[in-house]
Amino acid sequence: MASLRSICTNDVVVFFLMSFFIQSDAQIRYSIPEEMRKGSLIGNVAQDLGLDLKRLRSGRARIVTGENVQYAELKTDKGTLVVNERIDREQLCGDVTPCSFTFEILLENPMELHPVTIEVLDVNDNAPTFQSKHLDFEISESATIGSRFVLESADDADVGVNGLKDYILTANTANDNFVLKQHLNPDGSRYIQMVLQNALDREKEPRLNLKLVAVDGGSPQRSGTVHINIVVLDANDNAPVFNQSIYKATVSESSSKGTDILTVNATDIDVDANGQVSYSFSKSKTSAAGFFEIQPSTGVIFVAKEIDFEKDKKFEFWIEAKDHGGLTDTCKVEIDIIDVNDNAPVINVMSFSSPVSEDSPVGTTIGIINVKDLDSGENGQVRNYYALVTNAPLDRESVSEFNITVIASDSGKPPLSVKKTFNLKISDVNDNAPVFTRALYSATITENNSPGLSVLSVVAKDPDENQNARVSYILEECDIGGSPVSGYISVNSDNGVISAARSFDYEQTKQCLCVIKAQDGGSPPLSSNVTVKILVQDQNDNGPQMVPRSADVGYLVTKVVAVDVDSGQNAWLSYKLQKAADRALFEVGLQNGEIRTIRQVTDKDAVKQRLAVIVEDNGQPSRSATVIVNVVVADSFPEVMSEFTDFTHDKEYNDNLTFYLVLALAVVSFLFITCVVVIISVKIYRWRQSRVLYHSNLPVIPYYPPRYSDTLGTATLPHVYNYDTCRTTDSRKSDIKYMQPMSQSLVSVDDVGTESALNGQQRSTASTLVTSHFTNCK
Ligand SMILES: *[C@@H]1O[C@H](CO)[C@@H](O)[C@H](O)[C@H]1NC(C)=O
Ligand SMILES: *[C@@H]1O[C@H](CO)[C@@H](O)[C@H](O)[C@H]1NC(C)=O
Ligand SMILES: *[C@@H]1O[C@H](CO)[C@@H](O)[C@H](O)[C@H]1NC(C)=O
Ligand SMILES: *[C@@H]1O[C@H](CO)[C@@H](O)[C@H](O)[C@H]1NC(C)=O
Q1: DSSP output for 383-433
Q2: Mean pLDDT (the chain, rounded)
């Protein structure tokens, strides 16, 4: 009889035992979970098969299986099946469900074969797994929203609820850039995608770390994770940005080329080329105009050209920063230039009056100057207009010019200055009268002077200049013995030389007092007076010609000879007596110049006779010369000598000794010359017999002055030349005429041109006895 038992253990279900086939087998089926421990009870087969333990032993019950691996073991002593090997459902069946394996329990004597099926139930012993540990992505930050990125699927060896159930995408940080999308393949498998739902920003998050978690449905739930590393690739989505919108700097105008001024700084948060900034002047740059340059890579702005504060006080320009992707930013740069004291003040002359009159009052404005300084502030601090005024009276006579130096300096450090010199001339005003160099002028003049003879000169000085100092000398009228003084002397108005206007005669005029006025040319003129005293000195007028009182009518006293270097009519000379004390006594030969008596000498006749012989030529106009001849009427030679001493008596020779020496010398000379004259006369007589000049039986000693020659016409002797100047009394008008020199007068000529010449002249008179003076006047 077959019995059916049902054994229920924890997990084991014994279905039934069939004894319908005696030889055949009752099939037993157990269900056990996988992964039970070795020795774990699977089921009590003895009981389930209805076999007692003796039968099992006697029948040598054992498990037969075709497999290599025997998962179960039969414990014959207890009649139980226990786990012999770890049973891994996934290994045994993979995805196949349900999963079971079968073996037989074999009994002998009689042989019985009982199949046993053991179903292995799944246990969630496998987590979902990903093939890779990491998933790496490089995604441009410019990736568009909706972009999909396929992710790797996970596997779960478990089946059923223990199999893969879901995916979860997590991020370390709050990340909402990506969402997960799962799709079911037609074969039932799933693939998953990461979809970009919010744009990436490399600049915010250059890397994203996500986790993809796969979970199964088992309990406890198992999961598998894969790390997703996303590198966000840069896109040029950021322009450079200056860290300031306006940069301000100051720079001194003296800064040399290359001086760094400031650095502009723009940053681009992009990387690499997208973040590399280069700087340049913006196209709209204005006043910088080459004064500055910028280093493209660093943004350093430096001086490129000399700056002049006086031209540009401030620069404003724009700088552009550009990344290599072409995005730009601009900033403004303002550079203030600092003044340096590099300009000296400049002096401009607005007006300057030179010369200025010396009588200008104190406070007179001489000039107005304007001072400018191109610098500013302290460096240019100079006041503007200045007037140059006098602060003291001017006097040209003490200071005739001023060099006025004006120095303008600014207040810079160091100060700069400029100098300008003005030459101020003081113009003259007629404020000084001429002043004579002496309070009184006196001079002596020897009588018988030639008219026009310079007597002395007066000098007046005027410290003014030019016309104001141009002194004219004027003879003030004053009387001399009733006749006007101008008849006696004249003054050269230009040089103050006082000349005799006539031949003085001591016997008539002893002295001449007059006032000379010096007057300058100013307007009005200033003048001053000086007194001039001219003393007339007596002169031994001439060496006398002796005429004996007993002389007959026609007695030849002497002969004057004149020569004229002209020829023909112009040299045709005629002699006349110009002045004689007694006209009746002497006459002069018109042609030959012989002076003869024309009547008998009487007692009434003066002892001393003075004859002025004038010789005139026949020229047109006629020229003339005068000679003075002194004649002594005496009885004897000693008388002559006494007369002679008379001439010299009032002279300075009071010394008797000197006088006698001179007298002796005169006598010796007289005798010697007489001899010579006689010899010469004899010779001439023989040579010119036809011309007997005289015949006398009287004891007359013809007397000739030294160097006198009784020759006519062509004969010449060594002479003293006399160049005299004749002046009109009106010679102030500078009407000066120079005389033709009387080149070869035959009569010795005394030179009384100067006061001091008197002594010498006196001596020569003593030796010659005859002195003649020709003055060639026109
Ligand atoms: C630019 O400015 C930023 C901050 O303003 C600074 O960190 C950086 O170093 C500057 N760059 C240069 C080149 O000076
Ligand atoms: C901008 O950059 C410049 C240069 O590096 C720096 O001198 C300046 O201080 C910065 N300005 C600011 C506001 O950071
Ligand atoms: C003024 O300067 C000029 C030119 O240098 C010079 O010739 C003159 O002598 C100076 N005058 C005075 C008074 O210093
Ligand atoms: C100079 O003298 C004249 C007359 O002799 C007189 O009229 C005049 O006033 C005098 N002048 C001076 C400055 O003394």
Answers
A1: -SEEEEE--S---TTT--EEEEEEEEE-SSSS--EEEEEEEEEEEP-S---
A2: 78
Q: Do 212 and 295 share a structural domain? A: yes
The alpha carbon of 261 and the centre of ligand 2 are apart by a number of angstroms equal to 13
Does some domain include residue 409?
A: no
In 3D, which of 194, 271, 183 has the Cα closest to residue 229? 194
Which of 242, 243, 268 to probe ligand 1 with, by most ligand atoms within 8 A of CB? 243
pLDDT at 15 over 50: no
Which residue owns the Cα nearest ligand 1 atom 11? Answer: 265
C-alpha distances out from residue 490 to 509, 624, 674, 726, 740, Å? 16, 22, 43, 11, 22
Q: Which residues of 287-311 are buried (b: 16+ CB within 10 A; e: fewer)?
A: ebeebbbbeeeebbbbbeeebbbbe
For residues 681 and 600, membership in a common domain is answered with: yes
Give yes or no: residues 628 and 717 share one domain. Answer: yes
Strand partners, 346: 372
Closest-approaching ligand to the CA atom of 402 = 3
Contact partners, residue 588, CB within 8 Å, separation at least 6: 560, 575, 576, 577, 594, 595, 596, 611, 613
* Any domain includes 359: no
Least reliable range by pLDDT among 304-308, 550-554, 771-775: 771-775
Residue 52's domain spans which residues?
A: 35-121
- With a 6 Å cutoff on the Cβ, whether 262 touches ligand 2 is no
Distance CA 111, CA 23 (A): 7
Q: Are residues 515 and 602 in the same domain?
A: no
Query: Residue 303: which of 250, 248, 262, 257 has the closest Cα?
Result: 257
Last residue of a domain, one of 338, 354, 388: 338
Same domain, 262 and 324: yes
Residue nearest to atom 13 of ligand 4 (CA): 528
Quick one: which of 324, 249, 326, 328 has its CA closest to 292? 249
H or E element at residue 658: helix 656-687
Distance of CA 377 to the CA centre of its chain: 21
Q: Does residue 408 belong to any structural domain of this protein?
A: no
Residues 138 and 117 in one domain: no
Which residue among 121, 150, 185 closes a domain?
Answer: 121
In a domain? residue 508: yes
Q: Which two tokens stand for residue 22?
A: 């005696």
Task: Give the pLDDT confidence of 566-608 residue by residue, as tens digits.
Answer: 677 777 888 888 765 555 688 888 888 888 888 888 877 777 7
Q: Determine the pLDDT at residue 513.
A: 84
CATH of the domain at 513: 2.60.40.60
Residues 171 and 144 in one domain: yes
Q: Do residues 601 and 694 share a domain?
A: yes
Burial tier of 219 (Cβ tally within 10 Å: 0-12, 13-18, 19+): exposed
**Residue 216, both tokens:** 């199964």
* Ligand 1 atom 8 nearest Cα: 265
Count of structural domains within the chain: 4
Which residues face 452 on adjacent strands? none
